[in-house]
Amino acid sequence: MVSGIVLVMSALVAQVAKPAEKVQAKAEIPAATATKLKDARRLLQNGRYAEAEEALTVIETEAKKEPAGFAPSLKVALANLCDLMDRQLELIVDEKFNRGLTPNLIPRFEPSHPEAGVHHGFKGMQICASAMTAEAMKLCNPTTIHSRSTECHNQDKVSMGTIAARDARSIVELAQNVAAIHLLACCQALELRGVEKCSPRTQEAFRLVREHVSFLDRDRYLDVDIATTVELIQSGAISALVG
Question: How far is CA 121 from CA 112, 127, 151, 220, 227, in A?
Fold first, then answer.
């Protein structure tokens, strides 16, 4: 399972590590080019051919850079990755499937220990990841079907690119948080199982995470741990190790 997790992480960080502003800018191109095309037509009608030609060149260049379906495709791809990580996370925390790991990855205590059975481990983290995954999947609804006729039917069907870009940005942020929880759970499982049994690259990734977030030895607030791991993913450091 660890090798599969590494593959998922390497595929994910290549997308979610990109700044959200770049994602939004790329997804807005279909809407922007529609406006520029209208401006070019107006310039031609007014005899301003040089400016019209320049506007049309911009449209052609941008259309080649990014297809019209960039934002919807990104939304679906990232939501599917969230779903995959959420399912893998369930297998890791569930003692019925995690092959000898503790329930919810709680630290190991002797039965007679006063803290035995007290801690929740990654139970809340898995619920949180599942909730964010559901939200990401909900945001995959195609924005184009909500197109409204505007300007007295001058623009009867538009790409709704700005709304699609905002939805894509939200899914990117959700995916980053799901990935962070997924990564922290994997590190917790590795430490419980034995990091020395892993490949050298996996051990490097583990050590990198542990430089920023410690082992969960008892219940604590984990919001800072998630935020720290998100920043680590955004930095590209994880991608450089597993990519």
Answer: 19, 12, 56, 9, 18
Quick one: which of 75, 70, 64, 63 has its CA closest to 27?
A: 70
User: Which CATH architecture is the domain 2-19+68-147+154-242 placed in?
Assistant: Up-down Bundle (1.20)
Task: Report the C-alpha gap between 43 and 93 in whole angstroms.
Answer: 62
2 vs 183 pLDDT, higher one:
183
Structural contact between residues 20 and 239, judged by C-beta atoms closer than 8 angstroms = no
What radius of gyration, in Å, describes the C-alpha atoms of the chain?
23
Question: Is the overall model pTM greater than 0.70, yes or no?
Answer: yes
Residues 174, 118: Cα–Cα separation, whole Å: 30
Instruction: Quick: pLDDT tens for 202-217.
Output: 999 999 999 999 999 8
92 closest CA partner among 79, 105, 108: 105
Give the separation between CA 195 and CA 235, rounded to whole angstroms: 24
Instruction: Let me know: does 205 contact 6? Beta carbons within 8 Å.
Output: yes
Yes or no: say if 127 and 72 are a contact pair by the CB < 8 Å rule. no
CA–CA dist 106, 192 (Å, integer): 9
Looking at residue 141, its pLDDT comes to 84
